[in-house]
Amino acid sequence: MQKIKATLISERVTSNTAEAQNLFATSRFGEKLDDKILYSLPEALFLLNEKKMEIYDHRDKKLTQKEILNKFQKIDKKFKTKYLVFKDLRQKGYIVKTALKFGAEFRVYEKGKKMEESHSKWICFPVSENSSLTWQEFSAKNRVAHSTKKNLLIAITDEEADVSYYEIKWTRT
Predict the structure, then answer these.
(1) Active site residue 150
(2) pTM of the full structure
């Protein structure tokens, strides 16, 4: 398969190539936006690292991995944490999509489930082991998960780039 040629404009990575359309159809990378595929920043870096994508700037200059990483980290201060979680989940076979409309970073689909036939099971909040979370913030995340009929998944990254997951579900007593 030929690499996807994608363009970084402002804070968006997009492609309208046949390769992008094919990868979306087979592996659900990206989101359809008219005739283009729009990639989240973690998704774009993942595909770059998997040698499935090349990223160009608005002048059609191919960007190096270092340039891309610098740009992504300027756009999003928590990019490294988000990327580690995205990469870990995708490598484990989950489909991971953005969840901005749910007030979370990612929505995660169970393995083997088709996006068009089922809803995501989890909303995921990636956090660094060095960050803190108040009870109010934790409660707010729980309420978002409950109101969207999803389970809360807290993904904690450590200094060694390992990820630990904690699933929180509401139960009736």
Answers:
(1) yes
(2) 0.92
